[in-house]
Design brief:
With about 400 residues, the protein is of the alpha/beta class. Helix content is about 30%, strand content about 20%.
């Protein structure tokens, strides 16, 4: 009889929860950026959490959706201006920030705007269970409707800055002017809608100059859109990177005196192959479905809500099936490990899955029937890996 190799283990241990890399909450995450800038302008109630940054009277944050640190570093030819700024990242240390968990747009924008980690602001995933209704709530599209102020009650940093006499402004697509996500994450001061990227850059520079102390935010989404549809290894994605590189340079060349421009992102991205090995279909896997009442989150960062009484069985099963490729944790384990930040507010606790699964490898848990659009995406994000977590904090000063 042929014996298996000595190193072969028919029952490999699942990934340990505490082996997952943690976001740098409190010193180098997206949630720390605006409080640091606002504190440098003397805004009460804010604290300078990123020690490497030097205060400026006028601060502009340009958030490029989906432009991760690793993706930017891998494409110097498409982004010569951004590449020239890599050494300026995080106050001249040449280091990135982390996004927070999960590395997804709704969560990250809320972290940026409120200056709070996900466990406090309460947008801990793409879709999460609303404890009041028992139904999934999409926090990016805000469906079904939920009262924004009850869902996220904290003031934004823009609110605090505006009250302190700082000129606060957001310059983005007109489509975002009155969305609930804008209200809970980015409201305060004035909103200015402009369609083209060039118009946004020009107006952001004008808004910076409009006050002796200014805090301005601007945003571009289509790097992320191209990555989802075509992947970060596509010509379309590279074209978007080339375009946004020119936008950053356009804004940098118009900075008024005493200004600092910070270029960052809400997450990176991973291309996942279209095969059964890399895309595990929840809707066709009876083991993963057993005992599950709701499947939330997204492919690389799942919230799993169990039928009452089945929580331990679901955790055991998900660990056995996925534990070599995903960090699989119970709600309490994920909270204790600090995935969602140093604290989780009581109102947020039950929004987090009974089981939380974060991908380590280039794999997804898709749901082909209930999530057909998301399941068809080439580029994906959400988890704790460097490709998704690390984002630039490039700096230009005038």
């Amino acid at each position: 009889m042929v014996q298996p190799p000595a190193a072969w283990d028919p029952h490999p241990e699942p990934l340990a929860v505490d082996s997952a890399p943690l976001p740098e909450y409190g010193k180098g995450s997206l949630a720390d950026l605006l409080p640091t800038l606002a504190a440098g302008m003397g805004v009460p109630g804010t604290t300078a959490a990123i020690p490497e940054l030097t205060p400026a009277d006028r601060n502009c944050v340009f958030l490029i959706d989906g432009l991760g640190w690793e993706q930017l570093k891998a494409h110097p030819d498409e982004a010569p201006f951004l590449t020239s700024l890599l050494a300026t990242s995080r106050g001249g240390t040449g280091r990135p920030l982390t996004t927070g968990y999960p590395a997804t747009t709704a969560t990250s924008l809320a972290s940026v705007g409120t200056g709070l980690p996900p466990g406090a602001h309460g947008l801990p995933g793409y879709t999460v269970r609303d404890p009041a209704t028992g139904a999934l709530m999409n926090q990016l599209r805000w469906q079904p409707w939920t009262e924004p102020g009850a869902w996220q009650p904290y003031p934004t940093v823009f609110d605090l800055a505006d009250r302190a006499g700082v000129h606060a402004a957001q310059v983005s697509s007109p489509a975002f002017a009155n969305t609930p996500l804008t209200r809970v994450a980015l409201s305060g001061g004035t909103f200015h809608g402009r369609l083209s990227g060039e118009e946004r850059m020009d107006l952001a520079a004008e808004q910076l100059a409009a006050g002796d102390r200014s805090l301005v935010y601007t945003y571009y989404s289509e790097v992320d859109g191209a990555g989802h549809r075509f992947g970060v290894d596509s010509d379309t994605w590279r074209g978007q990177l080339m375009y946004v590189d020119r936008l950053v340079q356009r804004l940098a060349e118009q900075l008024p005196p005493r200004s600092a421009l910070y270029v960052t992102a809400d997450h990176g991205m991973v291309d996942v192959p279209f095969d059964e090995q890399h895309r595990i279909d929840f809707d066709e896997d009876w083991e993963l479905r057993a005992g599950v009442a709701l499947l939330g989150g997204e492919g690389r960062a799942r919230h799993v809500y169990a039928v009452p009484g089945a929580e331990n069985d679901v955790l055991t099963c998900w660990r056995e099936v996925l534990g070599e490729q995903f960090w699989v944790a119970s709600r309490d384990e994920a909270i204790a490990a600090g995935w969602f930040g140093p604290r989780v507010d009581e109102r947020v606790y039950a929004r987090i899955g009974d089981v939380v699964a974060a991908a380590r490898d280039d794999v997804l848990i898709i749901a082909s029937e209930r999530e057909p659009n998301e399941s068809a995406m080439v580029g994906n994000h959400g988890s704790l890996t460097p490709a998704e977590q690390l984002v630039p904090l490039l700096e230009v000063r005038s």
